[in-house]
Amino acid sequence: MAAGGDHGSPDTYRSPLASRYASPEMCLVFSDRYKFRTWRQLWLWLAEAEQTLGLPITDEQIEEMKSNLDNIDFKMAAEEEKQLRHDVMAHVHTFGHCCPKAAGIIHLGATSCYVGDNTGLILSSGFITAQCSLPFPVTDSSPVSVSQLARVISRLADFAKERASLPTLGFTHFQPAQLTTVGKRCCLWIQDLCMDLQNLKRVRDDLRFRGVKGTTGTQASFLQLFEGDDHKVEQLDKMVTEKAGFKRAFIITGQTYSRKVDIEVLSVLASLGASVHKICTDIRLLANLKEMEEPFEKQQIGSSAMPYKRNPMRSERCCSLARHLMTLVMDPLQTASVQWFERTLDDSANRRICLAEAFLTADTILNTLQNVSEGLVVYPKVIERRIRQELPFMATENIIMAMVKAGGSRQDCHEKIRVLSQQAAAVVKQEGGDNDLIERIQADAYFSPIHSQLDRLLDPSSFTGRASQQVQRFLEEEVYPLLKPYESVMKVKAELCL
């Protein structure tokens, strides 16, 4: 902050995550105002708890702190930090300047990580949880994360249910394989996202507060404040933890909470990034095949040179940002590995960047994927045509079985089919024509015993196995129960920033 320029100016670099992609709510959560307002809230909670436990802190001092939580002089704080080279003490002085009566008890017994680490945990908790547990609300409900992910899953579940029985060509190695259904393929995406939702919930439930621990985690300063009263020190830690909305605090810390916590959080977000990248890659490939498209607005331009283009820019954006999100987990991995003893400060600058960017990026890709999932377009006729091109080859085993049942030889029929299949393949590959294998079979008298059965043998729905039943069972048994706690936030629509 002390060295920064005017981040609203076109002459100063501003992160595209904030200026183009992330939601205004998420940008506010990771803004300086929100961060330093949370620091002040933490100082107030500490003072309130210390007063309750008997330290000589007056009601007047508490009220003065309460009335100035939002009265932040950012210019003064920047000037203080430039002189002190210490952001926490700069804000201690700035808060004390507008709270002269309380100035002497602000940050009493605490170390910088009391505000720094605990604020990070509060913001992480507020991002991941379904209901906003931040010290003061941004909106009426949580802006991101599990609620947003639940909405994406819900939209895709509706899509899968509606198209549970619509046959489509499956691909392995991106080569034609057996048929599946559009809904079943979508369930592959949903299953990955459900795992991400469960992982986010697990990380949120496991997240603990750093609490009130002192300079090396021993609580020595607080033990001195309370004249050796262990019970009061434990009560202080518990009271502040509860005020912050956490059920548990770490018993063991150094000066900081273990940086492995950051690994846990960013690993889950990176895993979410992998899921989104896979989904949006599939959508991009299907767009190339003209079987499915993401939403395309009336005035949207696909290419500055080619006016006919309908590029899948939303899915491409998700893939691009998901790659960034997946790489960010390397930062906390390396940071945790090089923390010396009770702490070193080489974590600080790195964490300022990677943690905020991870949450802003996750917010962006979830919002964009929700927008995509709310407007996916399917082209059944294109899908049907591609099936017609490949299904004759896939149906050959069924045709052989029907001929055997009609009295033919399995080996003779196999040879007949082999020859006709190679002829049809030559038409497709060498002449660019349509697959005419069925026409060749219909024209061959050898197959006359089953000519009347060919339509039935070539019904695409008979090649999709139990796909539609799997979709129904998966949604009813796994997806809908998982989404039930989030019913109140399902109606929120996604809006792209740019």
Automatic annotation (TrEMBL):
The gene is ADSL. Its EC number is 4.3.2.2. This is Adenylosuccinate lyase. Belongs to the lyase 1 family. Adenylosuccinate lyase subfamily. One of its GO terms (biological process) is GMP biosynthetic process. Homotetramer. Residues from neighboring subunits contribute catalytic and substrate-binding residues to each active site. The lineage of its organism: Eukaryota, Metazoa, Chordata, Craniata, Vertebrata. PROSITE patterns: FUMARATE_LYASES (PS00163). Catalyzes two non-sequential steps in de novo AMP synthesis: converts (S)-2-(5-amino-1-(5-phospho-D-ribosyl)imidazole-4-carboxamido)succinate (SAICAR) to fumarate plus 5-amino-1-(5-phospho-D-ribosyl)imidazole-4-carboxamide, and thereby also contributes to de novo IMP synthesis, and converts succinyladenosine monophosphate (SAMP) to AMP and fumarate. It is an enzyme of class 4 (lyase). Residues 391-475 form the Adenylosuccinate lyase C-terminal domain. GO terms for molecular function: (S)-2-(5-amino-1-(5-phospho-D-ribosyl)imidazole-4-carboxamido) succinate lyase (fumarate-forming) activity; identical protein binding; N6-(1,2-dicarboxyethyl)AMP AMP-lyase (fumarate-forming) activity. It holds the Pfam family ADSL_C. It comes from Saimiri boliviensis boliviensis. GO terms for cellular component: cytosol; protein-containing complex. It catalyses: (2S)-2-[5-amino-1-(5-phospho-beta-D-ribosyl)imidazole-4-carboxamido]succinate = 5-amino-1-(5-phospho-beta-D-ribosyl)imidazole-4-carboxamide + fumarate; N(6)-(1,2-dicarboxyethyl)-AMP = fumarate + AMP. Pathway: Purine metabolism; AMP biosynthesis via de novo pathway; AMP from IMP: step 2/2; Purine metabolism; IMP biosynthesis via de novo pathway; 5-amino-1-(5-phospho-D-ribosyl)imidazole-4-carboxamide from 5-amino-1-(5-phospho-D-ribosyl)imidazole-4-carboxylate: step 2/2. SUPFAM superfamilies: L-aspartase-like (SSF48557). Keywords: Lyase, Purine biosynthesis.
